[in-house]
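Pasting as-is:
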Amino acid sequence: MLVALHGHGDEPATARSWGRRMAPPGWEVVAPGAVRDDDGVRSWFRTTPTGVDASTLRTSARRVAALVADLRGDVGRPVVVVGFSQGAALALRLGGVGVQPDAVVSICGFVPEVAGSSADLRPEVGDGPRHPATLLLAREDDEVVPAFFSSDAAAAVSGEGGPAKLELLPGGHLVDDLAVDTVRRWVADVVAPEVRVSLGLPVDRLETGAELVSGRAIADLATAYERAGFHAAYVTDHPAPEVRWLAGGGHHALEPTVALAVAAAATERLLLHTNVYVLGYRNPFLAAKAIASLDVVSDGRLVLGVAAGYLRAEFAAVGVPHDERGERLDESLRVLRSLFAGEPREVEGGTVAPLPLPVQRPGPPVWIGGNSTAAIRRAVEFGDGWSPFPTPGGLERSTGTRRIADHDDLTAGIRELDDRCAAAGRAQRPVVCFVPFSLGAYLEDPDGRVDELADEVAHLGTIGVDWVALSTPGTSRLEVARRANELAERLGLRHGAPGAASGAASGS
């Protein structure tokens, strides 16, 4: 969460605008407004000829501190407060009322001095339970708040034991592209967003028999994943894969909602992830019934990853035209949205009422799979997430999608996602879930390549990836669980990490 505090006389919408541009991918932005003074001007505190009115400053600080505490919540969400000018002075004051964000950014800020006292508030900067990292941006040509005010504030923060970084940028008293870019990079480095992990249930390893492909195996491994701290468990979807595709490395899969229902019964917090569910294979009313039923029996823990599909023979086997897969996915998404909202649907011969409704409202988070522009468009129009996948060795040709062969390709796709969100007026972009390029090497050599995988997962977080989909090797439950525990420890996952799907799946 990023809290943006506007300057004196500005409106919250102004701060929300620049706050969205500097927030890490997937973060939400909150921009509270200061009260209006007697002249109708928004102001965080009153000033007098002898200094700042302490009462109004303290009231605003307490209000913002309460907001920070509420946004952090019981799950400890990262919260960064960024203030401009008078808003920056308020941000630097938060420690004096006992609540600290994870980081503070002051743009053209200053430490206010209290009227009627020779002592200022500098000793209170950094008070509270901990000292947040602080970035102070000063502008060379600022005639409103001269640069030395930021220098004094940086010295005050450092003097109280807080890590403070001072940067002097060209330009005047404003939040421009240079300031936005500087803040965005610093926040990404200091408060790196946690990359959440969905770990595959190995129900595609049919050669192991009931050891991995059985209800008991699903329950045992789902329990182990939850205990290790993984955020979700996923399964794939292939009702009728082609023999030639199987020979080339493809796989069978259990019916997704059946497998995940077993995992749901064995766990309490683990999210249940279809990665991916091919909606076009199914009548949308039947799909809605299965999806809503799974969300109900799991108490609202479903993350619905969907895609158009690409295997022509599989479409033929289920009696669906392959060439209509895109249109069918769009229509199915519209129907699901309507049914999950509880809207009756007119069909030939009468009206149908969708029940049961999903526990999650307005429905389970929908992550759109695929690399193409059409997939990105669907993610912006219908989805809560986008799930691209790597295409090494020309895989994009066989799957009929866009090439994502390296991190630059992935970054370009995320940039397109951001641009489409902006064009659509969507404030928060969908979360991004990706399969790391190094996963294949890790599966072949889990002892020798685990560090490479962990390093890539960390790097993916810096370029806008919110989730990764991983798997572990093994032909027995014991081996898969052992590898899962090793991987969780290497990735630094916290025990009890899974949470309610509405928060965890949205990336908030």
